[in-house]
Fold this protein.
Amino acid sequence: MKKVLILGAGIYQVPLIRAAKKAGLYTIVSSIPGDWPGFAEADQIYCVNTTDKEGILKIAMDEQIDGICTTGTDVAAATIGYVNERMGLHGLSEISAARTSDKTIMQETFHNGGVASAESIRADSPREAMLAAEKIGFPVVVKCVDSSGSRGITIVDRPEELQKAYEDALAYSRKDYVIVEEKLAGVEIGIDGLIRDGELIFLAPHHKIVCKRFNKTITAGHSFPYHGSEKLLDEIGVQIRKAITAMGFDNCAFNSDAFVDGENVSIIEIGGRAGATCIPELITHCYGFNYYEQIIRLAFGLPVEIPEQKQPVPCMAKLIMSPVDGFITKLDREGFEQLREEGVDLSMDYAIGHAVDSMINGSQRIGQFIVHTQDEAKLEEIENRINRCIYVNGQTLEKLWQMEDLQK
């Protein structure tokens, strides 16, 4: 039986583990110690940090794995590249992975490769951050250089906000510096796809569903397919091809964020892994093939199986989140089943009694749902019904969100 090593055991890695098992692979999962749902799914587990290159390499060599991959997180990219190079496996190279692991290096790579992107400056202190912001011009975006999922990212409109933004970015980072970027104009979109043997074989731009909280823009969901002019879609393809060439990506999935302003496209960042926040599930619903299975196939050097393109099925997804810290005290199972009977793809991460955190970024999710529509009013209606089925600290999520709105 062939073996795959999957890095990360969180909720975003669970569907990838299940896809690997369905494909008949022996699944080995490594993560830091904890009550991670992926550990319960795996055939073999190791409590080794996914950023520990030597520790993960030892596991890979001892187990004689045939492939290594992850999804939904950037922190394991450097380790995947390190293992691939030393074991001759398919997927991200070490140098490509290194470029994804630090946004300062990524931006330099973009500029050298002619990729349309924001002006950016590394800052090693609050003073340097201020000088960078003054040079670029407010508003700016202050970012942690080595995190994903909107963590450590703050839009700064005024000089007095810069110190806190700098500290917030460092709080999420293993580095001692941040990056200060020009705030691009336009609408932010997501772009996912697959690369095999140097060729872009699948491209799926998509709309983002965002919310603002504590002066942060949080990605809460996505909508497929993306609607844009033929010229705009062509330009998305041009800039993505430039980005993946500059980064040196091959035999992997990728996830990118970009700003669209009219028919101009600026790449914000790109990672050599599939996106989070329901993106693989939405691609599966929209385009009719299991995206997680293709990630596995790429890691094993196998041809990707994408059916002949048919009319995409419109769909949207959103994370279920809480506005407060606390515990799940009740779940209305009958309400859930009614929603599922109506075609809502609904999944909860936790059961009654489990702790939940107040929403700060996408990692504080307590579930997700997918609906076959691109009608935002329909999505909101379904979200409200779901929130009426979930109780935190004795109150429904719907009531808790209403209370927060009244306090604004």
Notes: The chain has a mean pLDDT of 95. Residues 12 and 237 are 27 Å apart (CA to CA). The domain at 315-407 is CATH 3.90.1170.30 (Aldehyde Oxidoreductase; domain 3).
